[in-house]
Design goal:
Length: 244
């Protein structure tokens, strides 16, 4: 009885502290960006052409370069992990962190902190590696947390399909509308699929990493939690807005 009370007390205390891992990941990405050349705020990288040159070298050092990933060097094999914390612009950072804030908190609460952190890093790594394998001859650098965040979306679809999500649709003049998560997330996945079919091999958005991450996240949640009771409260709401 005493052990049960201690465990319950610890669970309540952890819940009261909020989504610590999600907030830590957001903070980590923000700090890395602010200290890096892409923010334009660190005078150590200079200005003008010097800043552009420093940015290129920075992304090649910490990002995934497909034609270098499978060379077998330890540094290359670490880049799918380091690239998760590197972003190429303010818009890139803010867009990814918005999605992580909206969907990560509830997924973390459902999975638990250590499991959520391991899930995030592993699926993000695999999404990056899968994109690199599919574009093995490309010299274009891949950075950003979108592969891992896509995995969070996939897991969210299985774990909390009826949670309410406020979405902004550009073709509806950004009118905020609330839909069940399964509608928003399947619509988002369909958009990524269509965009991936039209994407070229040059620089741009790594839609394939999004698709792989989403699929990995959903499959993991299905395999790990299919025997447990999923949260189905339709009134449950996420903590922010998402833009599919």
């Amino acid at each position: 009885m005493l052990c049960h009370m201690i465990v319950k007390w610890r669970a309540v205390r952890e819940a009261a502290r909020g989504p610590v891992v999600t907030h830590a990941l957001i903070a980590g990405c923000a700090v890395v960006f602010l200290l890096g050349p892409a923010s334009g705020l660190n005078p150590a990288y200079g200005t003008g052409d010097e800043l552009l040159s420093a940015g290129t070298a920075y992304f090649r050092r910490w990002g995934v370069v497909p034609d270098e990933l499978f060379t077998g060097t330890p540094r290359a094999w670490l880049t799918p992990l380091t690239a998760l914390f590197v972003h190429g612009s303010w818009l890139h950072l803010l867009g990814n962190m918005l999605f992580l804030h909206v969907f990560g908190a509830m997924a973390e609460e459902r999975m638990g902190r250590p499991a959520f952190l391991g899930f995030y890093l592993c699926t993000g790594y695999l999404a990056m590696a899968a994109y690199a394998a599919a574009n093995a001859g490309s010299p274009q650098t891949l950075v950003g947390a979108s592969g891992a965040i896509s995995a969070v979306l996939g897991a969210f679809l299985f774990l909390l399909p009826r949670a309410r999500v406020t979405s902004l649709f550009p073709f509806l003049f950004f009118l905020p509308l609330r839909f069940p998560a399964w509608i928003v997330l399947l619509f988002w996945f369909a958009l990524q699929w269509v965009a991936a079919q039209r994407a070229g091999s040059g620089p741009g958005v790594a839609y394939l990493a999004h698709l792989v991450g989403f699929s990995l996240g959903f499959l993991y949640a299905w395999a790990r939690y299919r025997g447990t009771t999923r949260v189905r409260r339709p009134a449950t709401a996420t903590e922010g807005d998402s833009q599919p």
